[in-house]
Design a protein that fits this description.
Arc Repressor Mutant, subunit A; two-stranded antiparallel ribbon; alpha+beta; two-stranded antiparallel sheet; elongated; 185 residues; 8 helices
Amino acid sequence: MGFSIDESLNRMIAWLSSKYDLAINAIILSYIKTSSGNELLSKTVIISEEIEKEKTNKKKFIIPMSDNPGEYEEDKLKELLKSYLKNKQWSSKRIKDIMLPLLLRKDEITREQLKREFVRMKEASDENKAGLYIALISNQLGQAKKDFLRQIIHYEYPKGREKDNFSIKAEYKEFVKELLEKIKD
């Protein structure tokens, strides 16, 4: 028993969508002219819009965020921070090589100062690019599972939702300085 092209297309799209969880849908438009001369356009969708929307909402990958600092003992904190800073991710490297050393030299830095430092250190070609890197660092600082970073690095929200006025908490300055020296070797 054969299938029409429309039926075959419908089956293939439905199979791909369910098998590979792809957001595939097809709309078939049909033109009809009635005997009285009225023209109609009908729409047929393979997967109903309601089901597709429901599937899309379920797939959202949400990274839990927090501003609460960790409460780790010094040994565990050192282990977590060392592991993070030795990571090959760009944000980890930028925190280790630019942000923390700058925070050790100054009590507090603003986003603007950090942008200028990124450009000065040739980590970014301009301040706009530096702003993107800082947004990524800001995301790292805000991830709930990275509460150990917030235990050490303090920030404020003076302009709404944007992190600014970064500092290393006074009780951790020597701790961070020693750790940076150790992982540099």
